[in-house]
Specification:
Strand content: 5-15%
Largest sheet: 4 strands, mixed
Radius of gyration: 18 Å
Shape: globular
Helix content: 25-40%
Length: 135
C-alpha cells in the first residue's frame, strides 16, 4: 500500500481522509500484543458489516475466505476482540471455531477470541521440520 499511496506531507491541515489512511500505512501505530496472543494467534482480524449486509451469510463467507488465506500463507492462528455484551457475535465466532483467550490482565470491555490453524502436535512437527529438514 505504501507503493500505491504516497506519504502525505507534514502539514496536517492539508490532509483529507485519504491522507489519514495513507499516513497509517507509512506510520502504523505502535501496538504491543501480549505473548498469549502473538505466539499462537499472530494474525488479528476485525470485521464490520453494514446492517443491510448482515444475516445473509456474507460475513461467514468473508471470514472463511480470510481465514483460509491466512492459514495458506502460514499464519499459526488468528485472534480478535469484541465487547462481552455482543452475545450475537460471541455465538457467531464460537460457531466458526473461535475460543475465548484468557488474558493476563483482562480488559473490562473486551473479550479476546482465538482460532489456531495448527494443532499443537502439528505446530511442533512443522517447527521441527523447519529446524531439521528431512533429506
Amino acid at each position: 500500500m505504501c507503493e500505491k499511496y504516497a506519504a502525505p506531507g507534514p502539514d496536517k491541515s492539508t490532509w483529507n481522509s485519504t491522507s489519514e489512511v495513507a499516513n497509517g500505512f507509512h506510520n502504523p501505530p505502535k501496538v504491543i500484543i501480549p505473548e498469549c496472543l502473538s505466539g499462537p494467534y499472530p494474525s488479528h482480524i476485525k470485521f464490520n458489516l453494514l446492517p443491510r449486509a448482515q444475516g445473509k451469510g456474507m460475513g461467514e463467507s468473508l471470514i472463511t475466505c480470510v481465514l483460509e488465506s491466512l492459514k495458506n500463507r502460514g499464519s499459526r492462528g488468528v485472534h480478535l476482540d469484541i465487547s462481552p455484551d455482543d452475545i450475537r457475535y460471541l455465538n457467531f465466532y464460537t460457531s466458526l471455531g473461535f475460543k475465548e483467550i484468557t488474558m493476563p490482565t483482562q480488559p473490562l470491555n473486551q473479550v479476546f477470541l482465538g482460532k489456531p490453524f495448527l494443532e499443537e502436535s502439528e505446530d511442533k512437527q512443522k517447527i521441527s521440520e523447519a529446524e531439521f529438514p528431512q533429506s
